[in-house]
Amino acid sequence: VRDFGGHDDRSVMTVIAISDYLQANGSLIGGLGLALVCVSLLAFWHPRSRNQIIAFFSKLPGIRGIVVLRRTTNFCRGLGLLLSNGVNLTDALRLLSEAQVGGNHLKVISDHIRRGGRLVDAIAETNFLPPLATRMLRVGEETGSLDVAAKRCAEYYQAKLTEQIDKLANIVGPAAIVFISTVVGTLIVSIMSTLLSINQMAL
Fold this sequence. Notes:
With 203 residues, this protein is mostly helical.
């Protein structure tokens, strides 16, 4: 472009500079990328690091609600399944805790129950579940049908989780298309304007 006296468009020059850098340092960048993937997998494999990563992403806008709905669905489904098959409440919470369903919250809830407390009171104190789920489980605990209430709660929040994911996908999909189209369109216009400036110089 410079040799033919074309117009030095900043976006075109930036793309060319990035291309030159990637060609000159491709092996280094590939090695760093592979090392980053390995470190991420090791960190996610370790339970403590995995909980910290999940806790970080669960605070992000748009994702926090999905994380809470997923946790509520998994907990209620697992609790209802275990209780309906004859597992007592303490063992059910221990199994759910070992399955990494609720993290450290279930340990606090289990200790509360071992001291003679009620399940719903412990859930309300730790803010482990949404208020509606807590009320549904409270009704089930008071009527002696906690397993049935847990299953119905899981079905309700599974439907809400599916709806929330669909809404997020409907937002992210078009936004990604618009962003990619904008970037590609800008590059095409910049390259075409540069080529036209070279053609005009030739004429």
